[in-house]
Design goal:
Number of strands: 8
Number of helices: 8
Order of helices and strands: EHEHEHEHEHHEHHEE
Strand content: 15-25%
Radius of gyration: 18 Å
Helix content: 25-40%
Shape: globular
Largest sheet: 8 strands, mixed
Distance between the termini: 29 Å
Structural class: alpha/beta
Strand order of the largest sheet: 3-2-1-4-5-6-7-8
């Protein structure tokens, strides 16, 4: 996808990975970039608006734990820019001590955000189609010892994202779905490592994390843009250790239903 001149909605754009990602989009001369986040970062927002004057940059508050709040945020986004070309769901938390909250933000909130965005973007509703990008994690790809709640939320997100890319939905809406699985990035969210359930069983969990292979948020953001420029609908990408790799998740069991969208 050519990003120049496109309207971008970035959910979670003030987070550690988000701030680098939204600026990477603006460097591609997008038409507009709306940041949807729980709290506003006035200093960073002003920096973006001053530095990238040829793009509209604005902020809309959103609380991913409240469905009505998600609906209202996208309604305001629609009023602001009319059409969405790319929606990135990049919000997430690591703290596993509040299970309900981590599931709401990492999974149910992203699902609702995706479905609401798809309704606005859908060609069936007069939209222009577009692309929804859901940010998952490499720990979603196989059971990871440390991530007993965070990992499952991301694994479920992979399932949802890949399912929404199926012809049943894409042929009617024109909205593609892409899954991004970043490896370890030391951002402020990593301060919650001690709030993983595994921390009760692994006294030196912080030291183990900080000795693992890492990548910077800047490199991750640059590679995210590269992926979006080439990714096909339904693809899953690992962005780890500064490298990009498309992975193919095999079908290990046949479909329960045989459905042909051309016969619907």
């Amino acid at each position: 996808m050519e990003l120049k001149g496109k309207n971008i909605v970035f959910v979670g754009g003030f987070g550690g990975m988000g701030v680098k990602s939204v600026e990477a989009f603006l460097k591609k001369s997008v038409k507009s970039l709306l940041i949807l986040d729980l709290q506003q970062n006035d200093e960073f927002l002003k920096y973006l608006q001053t530095t990238y004057k040829n793009s509209l940059v604005d902020y809309i508050p959103i609380d991913l734990t409240r469905s009505e709040d998600i609906t209202e945020a996208f309604r305001k986004a629609k009023e602001r820019v009319n059409t969405f070309d790319v929606v990135v769901n990049g919000a997430g938390i690591l703290n596993e001590l509040n299970i309900e909250r981590i599931v709401q933000i990492n999974l149910s909130g992203v699902i609702q955000s995706s479905l609401i965005a798809m309704e606005y973007m859908s060609k069936a509703n007069g939209g222009q189609g577009g692309c929804i990008v859901n940010i998952s994690s490499t720990c979603s790809l196989n059971p990871t010892d440390f991530m007993c709640v965070y990992g499952p939320t991301k694994s479920a997100l992979n399932y949802f994202t890949n399912l929404m890319a199926k012809p049943l939905y894409f042929e009617k809406t024109g909205v593609s779905f892409i899954t991004i699985c970043p490896g370890l990035i030391m951002t402020p969210m990593a301060k919650d490592i001690g709030n993983l359930i595994a921390a009760k069983h692994i006294p030196n969990i912080e030291r183990i994390f900080y000795t693992a292979v890492q990548q910077t948020a800047t490199v991750y953001a640059e590679n995210l843009i590269k992926v979006l420029e080439i990714a096909r609908n339904g693809s899953t990408w690992v962005l780890d250790d500064g490298k990009i790799e498309e992975i193919h998740i095999p079908n290990v069991w046949g479909p329960a239903l045989n459905y042909n969208s051309n016969k619907s």
